[in-house]
Amino acid sequence: MIKYINQYSFSFDELNFNEEKLFEAFRDFSTQNFPLLEELYQQLYPSIKQNCKPVAGYKYFESEHITFQKNILSIDNIEFNLGPIIYRDLKDASDIFIFVCTIGSDLEKEVQKLISEGDTISAFILDRIASELVELTADLLELKIQNELNTKNYNLTNRFSPGYCGWSVSEQRKLFSLLPEDFCGIHLTESSLMIPIKSVSGVYGAAFNLIRKDYHCDICDAEFCYRRKSD
Question: Is the peptide bond before 35 cis (omega within 30 degrees of 0)?
Fold first, then answer.
C-alpha cells in the first residue's frame, strides 16, 4: 500500500554506479581522455563510496487534493505555474507525488578540499560524479514508487523539477512548504537553493494505466538540462 509520506536511505552500491555510467556522465569528453578519467575515478572511489549518503522521500497527494487548469497545478490550494511543457505531461494525472533526494554534503566537502589543495581536475570530476549520483538516487526512488503503484495498476509520468522545462525555480519554496521541515535533511536558503547542494526536488504525476510520454527536449531550449545531455 502506498504511503502518504515515505523516506528511504540507500547505500552507494544500490545506485549501481559503474564504468558505463561514468563514461556516460562524461560523454562530452574526448574518448582519448577516458583512461585518465578512469584512473582518477579509481583514486576517488574510496572517498565516493564512503561519503555518498543517498536519502530520498516523497509526499503523496490523491486526486481530491489537486486540480489542473491552464498550465496551473494546485495542490492543497497552493498554485504552481508549470508552463505548457510540464502541464502537457501532468494534466492527465489523477495523483501527485512531491519528491526530494540528496546524497548529503560530505562529497561537496571533498570537492572543496580538492580545490583548496589545487587539484581542480579531480574536483571537477568528483563534482560531476556527485551530480550523477543524485540523479541515480532519484531514479532509484522512482523505482520504489512505481513498485508500490503496481498493485493498483498506476503508472508514473516523468519527473519534473523547478528550474526545468519552463517551470520557475522560484516555486521551489512552494514545493517545500508542502513537505515536512528538513525532509530528508534538505532545507532551502533565502534564494531557494537546496542545502545540501547535491539534491533534487520535483513532482511526478500518477494515474491508472497512464502511458508515459517522452521528455519534450525538442521544444525546450534549456542547454543546462541533464536530460538534454543524454540525447
Answer: no
- 165-210 per-position pLDDT tens digit: 889 999 999 999 999 999 999 999 988 899 999 999 999 999 998 8
Cell (9 digits) for 4:
502518504
The amino acid at 178: L
**In angstroms, rounded to a whole number, what is the distance separating the alpha carbons of residues 165 and 116?**
35
- Cell numbers at residue 72, please? 496551473
Say what the pTM is: 0.89
**Considering only CA atoms, which of 222, 229, 179 is closest in space to residue 199?**
179
Instruction: Give residue-wise pLDDT tens across range 108-147.
Output: 999 999 999 999 999 999 999 999 999 999 999 999 999 9
Query: Where do we find the cell 532545507?
Result: 187
For domain 5-229, give its CATH number from 3.20.20.80, 3.40.109.40, 3.30.70.2860, 2.170.150.70: 3.40.109.40
Greatest extent of the chain over all pairs of C-alpha atoms, in Å = 55
Question: What is the three-class DSSP state of 223?
Answer: coil
Residues 66 and 199: their CA atoms lie apart, in Å, by 25
Say if residue 111 is exposed, middle or buried (CB neighbours under 10 Å; 0-12, 13-18, 19+): buried
